[in-house]
Design brief:
The chain has about 100 residues and is an alpha+beta fold. It has one domain: RutC-like (60s Ribosomal Protein L30, Chain: A), CATH 3.30.1330. The chain contains 2 helices and 4 strands, in the order αββββα. A hairpin with a 2-residue loop joins strand 3 and strand 4. The radius of gyration is 14 Å and the shape is globular. The termini are far apart.
Length: about 100
């Protein structure tokens, strides 16, 4: 629980992931957990929408990215129970659509 305590100290709260329709936000295969499709959702609603530099400021883009990471971590926790079990992150890929 040290990881979650540190996240809370930094002001981040891990949500309870809720799949939408047939979408599965995370899958475990052996010792690996894969997450995908995490957007800046807070309480089931997009916190930010729009294009960076047009409707969104750079700061808002940064905040949106933080929310996406927190949502990914919540998905990982939902599968393994405790983020302190994570030993290493293998790959992080971010795709931004326009």
């Amino acid at each position: 629980m040290r990881v979650e305590q540190e996240l809370e100290r930094l002001g981040f709260r891990l949500p309870i992931p809720r799949p939408v329709a047939a979408y599965v936000p995370a899958v475990r295969s052996g010792d690996l957990v894969f997450t995908a499709g995490q957007g800046p959702m807070v309480d089931g609603t997009p916190k930010f929408t729009g294009k960076l530099g047009r409707e969104l400021t750079e700061e808002q883009g940064y905040q949106a990215a933080q929310i996406c990471v927190v949502n990914c971590l919540a998905c990982v926790r939902s599968l393994i129970g405790d983020l302190d079990k994570v030993e290493v992150e293998v790959e992080i890929v971010v795709r931004v659509r326009d």
